[in-house]
Write a structure and sequence with these properties.
Length: 208
């Protein structure tokens, strides 16, 4: 079991859920290095062993818990294992960052509006997969990314923040994805900052 870091009471605690290379995780790691950033990553959870995102977290000195979903008979059992892994880390906000599992009410009901996701389209357009290909085929002139609250409906939660990019003549799904990803790396830290400031204000209000 990875050991919790000593938590900073002036920052909220993040758990980041990943399944792959972790580029959005890296954007949050980089943002959290700033002394005035109001959040710190206290745990990274990953459901796929040996992906590069795990190495990113370890290089940053962040505890990592690898919980392969294939080890569990049901989604609910897997999610109970994730919840148990998070208990000792003083988590205030859970960020899905390329976490390729659809969560059930077992997990969602615990975190509610403290569970967010980043999606590579301008929701409500192009929910699900293959967003860039679908945007180009639909003749869209704009694409982008969305940070939203996670609900039981896939990519249906309330929008927190969006960033936009133009769809250029001759764009391929790969070229469009690259430009959208640049905006994802700006949008996710920005959204977390907004939510973290609100959470910290509520904590102070509850003490007064």
């Amino acid at each position: 079991m990875p050991q919790p870091l000593s938590s900073n009471k002036d920052k909220i605690g993040l758990a980041v859920l990943i399944s792959g290379r972790g580029s959005n995780l890296q954007s949050l790691i980089d943002a959290s290095k700033s002394p005035d950033y109001p959040a710190e990553i206290r745990l990274v959870l990953c459901n796929i062993p040996n992906v590069y995102g795990i190495e990113r977290a370890r290089q940053a000195g962040i505890p990592v818990s690898v919980i392969p979903h294939k080890d569990f008979a049901t989604r609910e059992d897997f999610e109970h294992a994730m919840l148990n892994a998070m208990k000792d880390y003083d988590i205030d906000l859970v960020c899905q960052a390329g976490f390729m599992r659809i969560l059930t009410p077992v997990f969602i009901s615990v975190w509610g509006r403290r569970l967010i996701n980043i999606h590579p389209s301008l929701l409500p357009k192009f929910k699900g997969l293959h967003t860039h290909k679908r945007a180009i085929e639909a003749g869209e002139t704009e694409a982008g990314c969305t940070i939203h609250y996670v609900t039981e409906g896939v990519d249906e939660g309330e929008i927190i923040l969006q960033r936009r990019v133009p769809v250029l003549p001759g764009d391929t799904p790969e070229s469009l994805a690259e430009r959208v990803l640049e905006q994802e790396h700006l949008a996710y830290p920005e959204a977390v900052r907004l939510l973290a400031n609100d959470i910290l204000k509520n904590k102070i209000s509850s003490v007064l």
